[in-house]
């Protein structure tokens, strides 16, 4: 059993309203970045967990997304491995 | 001038309180994932912008983080290139 850090990115599906993204988009334009055309805001979630190997850690994180972290109707998610953590097995 | 999509991840600095992460951590443990040791929650921000090249797009996104997107006292940020968008130059 090793300890891994997983990064999950949850973002609003294309076409769905994203008021936080709209607000940041407007602010960036107001601050002078006229070349910004769109901003979408989601969540970046970092999970430290025990798993037998990298594949098992990624699989577990995918299940967490479907059960808790992402709204399947309005959000998409991506799961990536950050790496194994030192001091694992404690 | 091409159009690029940049991904920015803003996360709470290590050691700082993260109540949203604590809540997700507790929920995951309650749902049976006993092997989850820590959860941190930040923002994933996707920015579509015009820039001369990839380096200029990344540079602009870094400035946006320092001026607006991240709190320099409590948050760290990472900027990565997602890629050039098709239909650019319009």
Short synopsis of the structure:
With 90 residues, the first copy, chain A, is α+β, with helices and mostly antiparallel strands.
Structure, described:
Two copies of one chain form a homodimer. The first copy, chain A, is α+β, with helices and mostly antiparallel strands and 90 residues long. Chain A has one domain: Mth169, Chain: A. Chain A contains two helices and three strands. In chain A, strands 2-1-3 form a three-stranded antiparallel β-sheet. The mean pLDDT of chain A is 94. At the A-B interface, strand 1, helix 1, strand 2 and helix 2 of A face strand 1, helix 1, strand 2 and helix 2 of B. Strand 2 of chain A pairs antiparallel with strand 2 of chain B, so a sheet runs across the interface.
List keywords for this structure.
three-stranded antiparallel sheet; 31% helix; Mth169, Chain: A; homodimer; alpha+beta; elongated; 90 residues
Write the layout of secondary structure elements.
Two copies of one chain form a homodimer.
Chain A lengths: L1 E11 L6 H12 L5 E16 L2 H16 L5 E10 L6
Antiparallel strand pairs in A: 1-2, 1-3
**First-residue to last-residue Cα separation of chain A:** 10 Å
Structural class of chain A: alpha+beta
Based on CA atoms alone, the radius of gyration of chain A comes out at: 17 Å
Question: Number of domains in the coordinates of chain A?
Answer: 1
In percent, how much strand structure appears in the residues of chain A?
Answer: 35-45%
What does the average pLDDT of chain A come to? 94
What's the CATH class of chain A, please?
Alpha Beta
Largest sheet of chain A: 3 strands, antiparallel
Form type of chain A? elongated
- Low-pLDDT sequence parts of chain A: none
């Amino acid at each position: 059993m090793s300890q891994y850090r997983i990064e999950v990115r949850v973002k609003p599906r294309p076409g769905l309203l994203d008021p936080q993204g709209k607000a940041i988009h407007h602010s960036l334009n107001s601050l002078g970045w006229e070349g910004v055309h769109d901003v979408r805001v989601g969540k970046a979630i970092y999970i430290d967990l025990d798993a037998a190997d990298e594949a098992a850690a990624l699989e577990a994180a995918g299940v967490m997304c479907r059960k808790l972290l992402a709204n399947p109707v309005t959000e998409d998610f991506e799961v990536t491995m950050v790496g194994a953590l030192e001091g694992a097995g404690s």
